[in-house]
Amino acid sequence: MAGSGVFAEIIDGDVFNYYADGEWKKSSSGKSVSIINPTTRKVQYKVQACTQEEVNKVMEMAKVAQKAWAKTPLWKRAELLHKAAAILKEHKAPIGECLVKEIAKPAKDSVTEVVRSGDLVSYCAEEGVRLLGQGSFLVSDSFPGNERTKYCLTSKVPLGVVLAIPPFNYPVNLAVSKIGPALIAGNSLVLKPPTQGAVACLHMVHCFHLAGFPKGLINCITGKGSEIGDFLTMHPGVNCISFTGGDTGIAISKKAGMIPLQMELGGKDACIVLEDADLDLVASNIIKGGFSYSGQRCTAVKVVLVMESVADTLVEKVKAKVAKLTVGPPEDNCDITPVVSESSANFIEGLVNDAKQKGATFCQEYKRDGNLIWPLLLDNVRPDMRIAWEEPFGPVLPVIRIGSIEEGIHHCNASNFGLQGCVFTKDINKAMLISDAMETGTVQINSAPARGPDHFPFQGLKDSGIGSQGITNSINMMTKVKSTVINLPTPSYTMG
User: Fold this and answer.
1) Is-catalytic flag, 264?
2) Suppose 88 and one of 17, 118, 312, 419 were both cysteines; which one would form an S-S bond, judging by CB atoms 3.0 to 4.6 Å apart?
3) pLDDT score of 494
4) Which has the closest alpha carbon to 279: 314, 303, 305, 312?
């Protein structure tokens, strides 16, 4: 149960504490932020509403702790990360319970997220030891006009304090995808969890606490974005920001100073289906890609662009599979569970109503009960409908019929997003040509878009982000190159 057993110290009364300087603390504000259960639509948990002054103190402590941590041997950093990963996986049940109640993620998937997160942390420890254990050695005479009088030694050194901001849909996994690389690289970390998912994050942070990381190295600040959001992202003590979420990231990128940014900001992932595609395979991937976790995934299939000649057949196959999806509470491991909030449900409904008014074909009856929206496939969607371009982040999927490959590529590239996309065809030559033409960070061939495995590069173009994620890329991004040049009085050649 949340906040009990080894997690008892993270809660004070009915309010979960924030974590700073190796201790669980109550905010001086005397205020809390309520977390609404998407299924019951009632208050499930409360977290501390931290103040700007508390943010200042955390930043100062993180700065001090980072200096000592940077002197900690790589093998020791990795050892602590492996320990945290084991503790995280050991306590998958209570953390998974938090995900069920905070974000309505199906129970089985919630536990899987925690286990996956532990695996990510362990992999990160191993990758970091190998990656950061190597430097480079250059000699000056390889450049024209120089003798061998200079030796350049390069290594990767930490940036300082990393601010990590994960989203609600994978609050644990996308938190550790930032925490692990930051720590193995020698940085300290300040985590600002999403409101929905904050308690799961606090439990996860306690696993790092139990592993024995130094005080002040890892910190977790909770509170209202309106009060501490900009204050955190514009804080002079922050040396790097890693953010996953929506439009807020664009605002952050405009306000942040001259610091490295890692941003993943959503997508309108297109699924292009050619005439020769295996339509059974396509239908299965559309269901998996479009409706898993009720479509609340950045890499969900968000629009199907299918050749007119096979559209009728594909739509019928998808309709048959949609009819088999279970709908209900996350505790019952239903395929479709409530979306995260009432405002999200209202936004999705607005897209559906717009499509209805403009003549889209409803393959199922639109049905909603509170935050629970039944899966809906919309056929004959046209470019003048909002659903053709906007990201619903819900179990509603538009189908646009196309007359040519070029038309499909044009629609994909006309989007302001460019996260991922996919193409289904048995012709690998066509697949590669389409992949090269699609303006997205990743193209999946004959499979739905996906983030992972977690060591794969993950990046978006245009409004979908800045930089690249994936364990190796994140470690590199959270370091900078340091050069030391040895100057010799006379040229020296090996074996010369």
Assistant:
1) yes
2) 118
3) 80
4) 314
